[in-house]
Every structure is written in structure tokens, then in C-alpha cells.
């Protein structure tokens, strides 16, 4: 019994030393990757299609550099450190027309940007929720408070959905507000109105307004 106890103790000490050695050997960049992937796992593991395939794909620091942004936009958000920029498709809350936009994440806010204009600013402190579906689409809905500052919730389609949502919830420090939904979700259009988005499976990916006026994501 004593020998078994000693063996188990030595095994634990050996394992601890190996882990410590591994952690010390990690580069700063690799540590950031692992920290982000831990958050991605907590949010999406077993909940959203494509999660397992995303594991082997390292997250990029950003998809676009700061100097890819229009100088007018940089001037408007001066004083804030830009952390992540990615191209997105934004869907209008009324009519669901698709628009090419940029999502810019700073240390304190998320911006939806069109060329030289800021179309919407969401301060992380006011962010109410982040929703995605359980399917393999890249739709992300950023839920905002109902006040005069905001036009309504933001409907985006992101190519790198796991990366974008992970960056957003880490920067906002709001991992707990991310929801992975099945079937449908409600979003706020503005002026007290709500809309519905339906998620379904089909032969080819598409996003369209159906006959009942709902946004349908296939």
C-alpha cells in the first residue's frame, strides 16, 4: 500500500513538472491561441455544427489591419485601441437587404463600418447578448438595449464565426451572454418591434426573406 501511494505521488509530481515545462515553452502567441480556444470550447463545444472542424484552424489576430480602414473611420474612433477587424455581411433589420460591412472591435466597443462611415456603435458595457444558431451558418446577432442610441439588434454573417464570436465575447468580457439557438430566434428591430429569424437545413446555403416576412437562413 505504501509503495502504491509513493508511486502515485511520484506520477503526479512527474506530470506536474511536464505540464509546467510545456507551459514555460509556449510562446506568448501560442498562449493567447490556447486561451481563446478554451473560451470557444466553453461556448460552442457540442452545440454548433463545424466546431470540431474549427479546432485545427488557428485564430488570426485580425482579418484586416488597422491601415486597411478608411482614415475617416480611424479618426472617428481615435483614442480606442483596435483589436480585431473582419469583413461581414450585415442584414438590414427592415427588408433584410445584404450589405457589405466591416466589424471593428476595439477594447471598449464594437463598430459596424461602411467605408468611411460608422453605421452603429455598441459599447460592450451595454451589450445584452450574442446569438448564433446550432447549424453551420455564420449568422451572429448582437443584441443591444432598447434606447434612443441604438437602431436595433445587429444581424451579421461572418465567414469565421467561431473566431469572431470568441474575440467579441472575450473583449466584451461577456462569455455568459452567448446563446446557441435551435430553430429560430427573435431580434429587436427598433421602436419596440421584433422580428424572427428561422434556421433550417437545405441543399444549398442561402439567406432570404420568406413569404411571411421572416429572415430564413438555410
UniProtKB/TrEMBL annotation:
What cellular component GO annotations does this protein have?
Answer: myosin complex
Domain (TH1) ranges: 48-218
Output the superkingdom of the source species.
Eukaryota
Q: Which InterPro entries does the protein's record reference?
A: Myosin_TH1 (IPR010926)
Any GO molecular function: cytoskeletal motor activity
Q: Per its record, how is this protein called by name?
A: MYO1H protein
Question: Which source organism does the UniProt entry give?
Answer: Poecile atricapillus
Amino acid at each position: 500500500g505504501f509503495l502504491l501511494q509513493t508511486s502515485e505521488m511520484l506520477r503526479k509530481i512527474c506530470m506536474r513538472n511536464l505540464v509546467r515545462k510545456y507551459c514555460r515553452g509556449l510562446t506568448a502567441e501560442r498562449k493567447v491561441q490556447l486561451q481563446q480556444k478554451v473560451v470557444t470550447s466553453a461556448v460552442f463545444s457540442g452545440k454548433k455544427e463545424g466546431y470540431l472542424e474549427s479546432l485545427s484552424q488557428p485564430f488570426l489576430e485580425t482579418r484586416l489591419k488597422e491601415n486597411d480602414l478608411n482614415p475617416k473611420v480611424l479618426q472617428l474612433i481615435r483614442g480606442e485601441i483596435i483589436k480585431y477587424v473582419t469583413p461581414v455581411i450585415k442584414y438590414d433589420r427592415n427588408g433584410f437587404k445584404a450589405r457589405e460591412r466591416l466589424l471593428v472591435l476595439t477594447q471598449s466597443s464594437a463598430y459596424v463600418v461602411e467605408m468611411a462611415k460608422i453605421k452603429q456603435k455598441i459599447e460592450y458595457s451595454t451589450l445584452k447578448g450574442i446569438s448564433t444558431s446550432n447549424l453551420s451558418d455564420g449568422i451572429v446577432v448582437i443584441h443591444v438595449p432598447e434606447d434612443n442610441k441604438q437602431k436595433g439588434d445587429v444581424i451579421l454573417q461572418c465567414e469565421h464565426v467561431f473566431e469572431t464570436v470568441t474575440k467579441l465575447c472575450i473583449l466584451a468580457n461577456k462569455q455568459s451572454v452567448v446563446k446557441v439557438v435551435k430553430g429560430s430566434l427573435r431580434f429587436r428591430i427598433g421602436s419596440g418591434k421584433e422580428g424572427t429569424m428561422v434556421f433550417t437545413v437545405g441543399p444549398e446555403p442561402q439567406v432570404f426573406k420568406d413569404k411571411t416576412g421572416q429572415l430564413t437562413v438555410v
